[in-house]
Design goal:
mainly alpha
Length: about 80
């Protein structure tokens, strides 16, 4: 892999990590560089950005995503169709 392609993938990976909240410190840079170098074993191998993103949990701590409930819990109620009058 040529240096320009590696540099572009590293830049995209660092931007993705910064936007996802992983930070842009030296540790994040070192981990991103390790991820990129481990995935690019040969010169003729092209690794897509999607593959790098799928390998992020192996190199970076990813907090679990807490999804809020879609709707409030269902409770028994009455809308007044029947009355005892």
């Amino acid at each position: 892999m040529d240096a320009l392609t590696s540099y572009q993938l590293l830049g995209r990976l660092l931007a993705y990590l910064e936007m996802s909240g992983a930070g842009a410190d030296r540790g994040a840079f070192d981990n991103a560089l390790a991820l990129l170098s481990n995935e690019h074993a040969g010169d003729d191998q092209r690794v897509a950005f999607e593959l790098l993103v799928s390998r992020i949990p192996d190199y970076f701590p990813v907090p679990p995503v807490d999804i809020p409930p879609v709707a409030p819990p269902v409770q028994r109620g009455s809308i007044g169709y029947f009355s005892d009058d």
